[in-house]
Amino acid sequence: MIRLKTNEEIEILRENAILVSKTLAEVGKAIAPGVVTSSLDKIAETFIRDNGAVPGFLGYGGFPYTLCISVNDYVVHGFPGDYVLKEGDIVSVDCGTIYKGFYGDSAYTFPVGEIDAESAKLLKVTKESLYLGVQKAVAGNRIGDIGAAVQQYAEQAGFSVVREMVGHGIGKNMHESPEVPNYGKQGKGKKLSEGMVICIEPMINAGKKDIYLHNNGWEVSTADKKRSAHFEFMVAVRAGKPDVLTTFDYIENNF
Ligand code: MG
Ligand code: MG
Q1: Which CATH superfamily, name and number, covers 7-252?
Q2: From ligand 2's centre to the CA of 95, what distance in Å?
Q3: Residue range 101-133, pLDDT digits in tens
Q4: Is 11 helix (H, G, I), strand (E, B) or coil?
């Protein structure tokens, strides 16, 4: 069942989305060669709590951290820990909040210092594929229109789309219906209607699409060890144009 949101609920979801956006910006300011990833988790948890909210991932399904930090060939759900970032890494940071009874959820992949041209292209194409998918999140379109836009763009650039993990509806639960795959066919899938709030989150691999799950049951890496990028927006479906709740402005104005 898809739970449609009232305008009041969408405004609370927007507050969550903006808090996640600001948290990612705080984390981004700290990302540099020599930084241990566990310190980023602390920055995020402190910032979220200082803003009167609760980390949305901490304890969710047993997840032990505030952030998912996925470096290089890690796709998603990476654990913050004793890894020390180094020049040339790419680091995906996924963050959630709970505020006023609703969730926030967004992700951004950061370069660490100077990165190689292939990695820079991967980040650029993944983010642009998100923006193209978002443009399809309009009432009357179908879920497949979003996935088709993401997939076409990513594959034309020579990259591949992870299949096993998908975007989702969001509200009082972090993961609600519908699923929002990053691949698909135009005109197929559930129809989008006003009041749906969804997370669109392409996970794009530089090499092949195949992934594997680590023994801890959470962390996901590419099978071929090539790099992967991940960007995520929360979007409210409206008539005529998408209402993007997340913003990367806080992050990118710090660069
Ligand atoms: Mg998500
Ligand atoms: Mg997320």
Answers
A1: Creatinase/methionine aminopeptidase superfamily (3.90.230.10)
A2: 6
A3: 999 999 999 999 999 999 999 999 999 999 999
A4: helix
| Domain residue ranges of the chain, discontinuous segments joined by + | 7-252
pTM given for the model: 0.97
Ligand 2 mean position, distance from CA 56 (Å): 10
193 Cα to the center of ligand 2, angstroms: 22
Residue 105 Cα to ligand 2 middle (Å): 5
> Does the CA dihedral 241-245-251-254 come out positive or negative?
positive
Task: Give the helix/strand (H/E) hosting 154.
Answer: helix 143-156
Distance 218 CA to ligand 2 centre (A): 14
Name every residue whose Cβ is closer than 8 Å to that of residue 120 and which is 6 or more positions away in sequence: 111
pLDDT per position as a tens digit, 191-200: 999 999 999 9
Q: 15 CA to middle of ligand 1, Å?
A: 16
Q: Are strands 67-71 and 211-213 parallel, antiparallel or unpaired?
A: unpaired
Q: How far is the CA of 126 from the centre of ligand 1 (A)?
A: 15
